């Protein structure tokens, strides 16, 4: 069966299949009610990057909403197997989890155990222009919901405000949409964490601002010390975006991407900054070294 380099591996099955052959039940709770939780990963050296950290966050999320313990060992084995199947090409990986099955209607019982599926496909490399010329962002029209609650802290698949923000960015020809929280402070991008540079200080919204505890975000904060930079997590006002010398995004797939324009206003001098470039280099070194045999 033709897979076009894309595979799905249903939890509990012995081997992966082409996407068209993957099946979920019509009573899957994530399909019916948008309750799915997921992780997105990528490979370096055809090995999953920060696999343990992603699985730890996944388990913390499922535990927070009261789901049963996940088969973490099997999940890790499957993700490594998918990455090896596509080697030597690098891969985009995704792990999706559902709490189980339930016939429509809240009086119907939820039937466990949790169901899960892993996906693997080509990693679309970001063109060099993203890093050499920088990217343009807009401010989303809707806020990031429920700051400080379990919704940003758990990586739910059903995040309509993020999906709407992404469509707004696409419609405006922008690379990313930045969301504020309901208090009017900066939260995060539709698919990234946001950092500002002021002098030798790197600032990013704290978790209480209503953002995901990003794996790449944590790595960047760790690498700031290596770059001789002070890192601060705190509430950030939106006007600080225009006062900053640099702004950059960080995510699993984007790595570290410099922002040169926000809402039609230039950031700093309107060109990629040296701090973002330094952290991009350090991040890539870290990722390549941590996945090397």
Overall tally of structural domains: 2
CATH topology of the largest domain: D-amino Acid Aminotransferase, Chain A, domain 2
Class by SSE composition: alpha+beta
Mean pLDDT: 93
Biggest sheet layout = 9 strands, mixed
Helix content: 25-40%
Uncertain regions: pLDDT < 50 for 5+ in a row? none
Per CATH, the superfamily of the largest domain is D-amino Acid Aminotransferase, subunit A, domain 2
What share of residues are in beta strands? 25-35%
Strand elements, count: 14
List the helices and strands in order.
EHEEHHEEHEHHEEEEHEHEEEH
SSE diagram, text form:
Layout: E1 7-10, H1 29-33, E2 37-44, E3 47-48, H2 51-64, H3 72-86, E4 91-98, E5 115-122, H4 128-133, E6 135-139, H5 150-153, H6 160-171, E7 176-180, E8 186-189, E9 193-198, E10 201-204, H7 215-226, E11 230-233, H8 240-243, E12 246-251, E13 255-262, E14 265-266, H9 274-290
Parallel strand pairs: 6-7, 6-13, 10-11
Antiparallel strand pairs: 1-5, 2-3, 2-4, 4-5, 7-8, 9-10, 9-12, 12-13, 13-14
Notes on the structure:
The chain is of the alpha+beta class and 293 residues long. It is built from 9 helices and 14 strands. The chain folds into 2 domains: 7-122, D-amino Acid Aminotransferase, Chain A, domain 1 (2-Layer Sandwich); 128-290, D-amino Acid Aminotransferase, subunit A, domain 2 (D-amino Acid Aminotransferase, Chain A, domain 2, Alpha-Beta Barrel), CATH 3.20.10. Strands 6, 7, 8, 9, 10, 11, 12, 13 and 14 form a 9-stranded mixed sheet that branches.
């Amino acid at each position: 069966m033709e897979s076009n380099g894309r595979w799905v591996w249903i939890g509990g099955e012995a081997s992966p299949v082409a996407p068209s052959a993957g099946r979920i039940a019509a009573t899957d709770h994530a399909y019916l009610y948008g309750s799915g939780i997921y992780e997105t990963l990528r490979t370096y050296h055809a090995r999953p990057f920060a696999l343990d950290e992603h699985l730890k966050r996944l388990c913390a999320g499922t535990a927070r909403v009261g789901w049963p313990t996940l088969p973490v060992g099997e999940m890790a084995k499957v993700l490594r197997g998918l990455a090896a199947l596509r080697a030597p090409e690098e891969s985009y990986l995704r792990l999706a989890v559902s709490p189980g099955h339930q016939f429509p209607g809240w009086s119907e019982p939820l039937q466990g155990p949790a169901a899960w599926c892993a996906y693997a496909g080509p990693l679309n490399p970001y063109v060099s222009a993203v890093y050499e010329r920088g990217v343009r962002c807009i401010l989303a029209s809707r806020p990031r919901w429920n700051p400080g609650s379990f919704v940003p802290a758990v990586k739910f698949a059903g995040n309509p405000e993020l999906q709407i923000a992404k469509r707004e960015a696409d419609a405006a020809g922008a690379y990313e949409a930045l969301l504020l929280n309901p208090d009017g402070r900066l939260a995060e991008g539709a698919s990234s964490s946001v950092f500002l540079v002021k002098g030798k200080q790197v600032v990013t919204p704290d978790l209480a601002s209503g953002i995901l505890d990003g794996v790449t975000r944590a790595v960047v904060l760790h690498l700031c010390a290596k770059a001789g930079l002070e890192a601060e997590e705190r509430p950030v006002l939106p006007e600080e975006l225009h006062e900053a010398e640099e702004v950059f995004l960080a995510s699993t797939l984007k790595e570290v991407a410099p922002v040169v324009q926000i809402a039609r206003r230039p950031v700093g001098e309107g060109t990629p900054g040296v701090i973002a470039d330094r952290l991009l280099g350090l991040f890539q070194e870290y990722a390549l070294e941590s996945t090397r045999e």
